[in-house]
Write a structure and sequence with these properties.
276 residues, three-stranded mixed beta sheet, 6 helices, Helix Hairpins
Length: 276
């Protein structure tokens, strides 16, 4: 198929008024479709370079994020377990103090029994002693149960701590790997981001919205692709000859009927990739 020659848009012609100030000839000069396509492909070219940098990082950012969430979860779990453990130990201390108080009461009541004047007072003190002995037995039982629970809880805490330490080491290692990759590409990515923002400002809102929509839905991030060997450079479906002529004529923005990507010809590609 013969290649259609497309001339680059002519530069605006300026005129000089009587007072010496220059003014644009006529009203606003409308940007040609060819130039719109060049700017779109330039933006795509820049964004593709950014995508390649991010691809170098692979799954590391997600892995770091997952590990951060897991470490945070383990920290929360350990805090809760430690709080429960302290509460149980507090209950043991409380029961131990109750036993001390009960023994002191028993000693007191036994001393009073030696001074009673009748059987009624003696029996009353005897019941108090029995009650305090029951309190001691019950407290000792509760202490035994609590200590068994504490031992089990300490094992869980130890397991959680070991898991936390392992995940913490993994996280530190992954962070170092990610930081190393970011350090190598940070300057280049910032420069590309600035270029992408600058290129976006040169594209009308309607086209930019379409570009971002298609790019966001494309797995490879390609919204503007070149026609290669008569096929779409995105989905690789064949493009009819007449449609190829329409693309090379630059009369309107044409999208692929199959994938919705914006199609450009060799002229647009060379305009962008041939720039220094």
């Amino acid at each position: 198929m013969a290649k259609t020659e497309v001339k680059a848009p002519e530069k605006e012609v300026k005129t000089t008024s009587a007072n010496g100030k220059s003014s644009k000839a006529g009203a606003k000069t409308e940007v040609s479709v060819a130039e719109k396509l060049v700017e779109l492909y330039r933006l795509q070219h820049i964004d593709t370079q950014k995508d390649k940098i991010r691809t170098q990082r692979g799954e590391l950012p997600l892995e770091v994020e997952d590990l951060e969430d897991e470490v945070t979860g383990l920290e929360t779990r350990m805090t809760k377990l430690q709080s429960e453990l302290e509460e149980m130990e507090g209950q043991v201390t409380e029961k131990q103090n109750l036993i001390k108080d009960a023994k002191a009461q028993i000693k007191k009541y036994e001393g009073q029994q030696a001074k009673v004047r009748n059987n009624r007072e003696y029996d009353s003190l005897t019941k108090e002693v029995e009650f305090q002995n029951l309190e001691i037995q019950l407290s000792e039982k509760r202490i035994k149960e609590a200590k068994a629970q504490i031992d089990g809880k300490k094992e869980v805490v130890a397991e959680s701590k070991a898991k936390y330490d392992d995940r913490k080491k993994d996280l530190e290692q992954k962070r170092k790997e990610l930081d190393s990759i970011i350090a190598e590409t940070e300057k280049e990515e910032k420069d590309l981001t600035k270029k992408s923002e600058a290129a976006s400002k040169l594209i009308e809102t309607r086209l930019l919205d379409a570009y971002n929509r298609v790019r966001g839905g494309a797995r490879n991030g390609l919204a503007v692709v070149a026609v290669e060997r008569g096929s779409c450079g995105g989905c690789f479906n064949a493009i009819p000859p007449q449609r190829q002529l329409d693309i090379s004529s630059h009369k309107k923005v044409i999208v692929c009927e199959h994938c919705g990507r914006i199609l450009v010809d060799e002229y647009v590609v060379e305009r962008v990739t041939g720039e220094k």
